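Chain A, query sequence.
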Amino acid sequence: MDFIELLKVIFLGIVEGITEWLPISSTGHLILVEEFVKLDVSKEFWEMFMVVIQLGAILAVVVLYWNKIWPFQNKKNQRANVTKIEKTAGVLCRFVNIEKMVMWFKIMVSCLPAILIGLPFDDFIEKTFNNWFVVAVMLIVYGVLFLMVEDYNAKRTVKVNSIADISWKMALYIGIFQVLALIPGTSRSGATIIGGILLGASRTVAAEYTFFLAIPVMFGASLLKIVKFGFHFTQWEAVILGVGTVVSFLVSILAIKFLMGYIKKHDFKAFGWYRIALGVVVMLFFTIFR
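Chain A, predicted structure.
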């Protein structure tokens, strides 16, 4: 019995690792998978597991992009071509990469809308929207949006070609787009990528900023769920969390590498069509068999 449950956890970890970074909604997929693959755990633990398993996905971003996101340094690693802003900062620049630190402040600005709206309404959103119908509708709606945004994107000139070019105002607007992802089936990465593209960012910049933005957002969401659940896990529950997180981490590394390689040569339309097709299948299945 435990072996079968472990296989289910591995499968769920694979689903999370793939869907967290591809713009197809990880939470939406996990809600749908739950209809067919049910863990023998309490409802409270399952709701916490669906969020906390994302910690593995976060770690994948940290590992892959460590050199781009870690803002601290020592004077032995100082670059020869120091920028004007670093010269102005003086001694601080011996220990802090100012450009990376500014990026993190912008990410904090992007987090504000989700914090202000997500925290007060977390329980309401979970109880009201965590169902197959909402997931199916959001899959289709955002699938159509991806097709429309890419048609628009083909006619415009990219204005933001690096994360350093993202303005404070743009960071806030991306955060507002992220709020849309509070509805299951939307996709946090999908919402912020669409927002980034519409605001003038290249696909690569929109995707990378989405990855970095996920670190505080997903860590905070996971911590909130653990606090709500309490830290009293059984030994088996700890195993489930550990295995799911490790599998999610390993699969996320592959998914992120795939996505970044894919968007260098292709647009996001394939994901749009996938979302539409999956949404229609879900609608038909639950309408006929439930």
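The chain has one domain: 2-289. The CA atoms of residues 146 and 272 lie 5 Å apart.
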